[in-house]
Write a structure and sequence with these properties.
By secondary structure, this protein is of the alpha+beta class. The protein has two domains: 150 residues, 60s Ribosomal Protein L30, Chain: A; 36 residues, Wheat Germ Agglutinin (Isolectin 2), domain 1. Helix 1 crosses helix 3. Bound molecules: zinc ion (2 copies).
Length: 197
């Protein structure tokens, strides 16, 4: 296990299949982007779904939610993109590994270990199988894991800075874009939920 992968696992705080996928995705994107990553202030990572893989993307690329250069696109696909927002150049990796992956063995082992009378042998077997798959993911050629393409994307919207005004009910300050009119009042999302439709 390479030290960078160990760092990703340490950040994520457990070893799992998707942290290995995220690690491989981050590595291939970084290598394909090359010089486009010279100024990381111009770079954003776009992730299509919320999985363990995203923690590896954060650890390896340094793009994080807190720095607002990690963007969840909610497209519901294992698609990971690094984009240089100054040049527009972006590399996209779709993880195709799961499309043909046979989950049956893992599923059976997981079911086995969830029984109240699960044996230590069953737990060891699941652990062993998981590690085998992780080793396979770490050793696989990029082309077996991902469809990789260069794409051109519009720059992502600037986030993090917003104009805030108080909600008419709780009087807490909220992003004005998220205030909604209801019964003549402008309400925040939390207060909207407390008023019957
Ligand atoms: Zn995980
Ligand atoms: Zn409110």
């Amino acid at each position: 296990m390479g030290s960078e992968f160990k760092d990703a696992v340490a950040f994520h705080q457990h070893l799992c299949l998707d942290i290995a996928i995220g690690y491989r995705a981050a590595k291939v994107l970084v290598s394909e982007m090359g010089d486009q990553l010279k100024n990381m202030k111009e770079v954003v990572a776009l992730v299509g779904n919320e999985t363990c893989a995203v923690d590896a993307i954060q650890e390896i690329t340094g793009c994080t939610f807190g720095k607002r250069n990690l963007i969840l696109t909610h497209i519901g696909k294992p698609v990971y993109i690094l984009q240089n927002t100054a040049t527009g150049t972006a590399v996209r990796a779709y993880c195709k590994y799961w499309d043909t992956f046979d989950h049956s063995q893992l599923r059976a082992l997981r079911k086995e270990t969830k029984r109240p009378d699960a044996s230590p042998e069953a737990k060891a077997a699941l652990q062993k199988k998981t590690e085998e798959i992780i080793d396979a993911i770490l050793a696989a050629p990029d082309s077996a894991l991902f469809s990789i393409s260069e794409v051109s994307l519009p720059p992502p919207p600037k986030s993090g800075k917003y104009q805030a005004e108080p909600c008419d009910q709780c009087h807490e300050h909220v992003d004005i874009a998220l205030l909604k009119d209801k019964g003549g009042k402008r309400l925040c999302t939390e207060c909207l939920g407390t008023i019957p439709a």
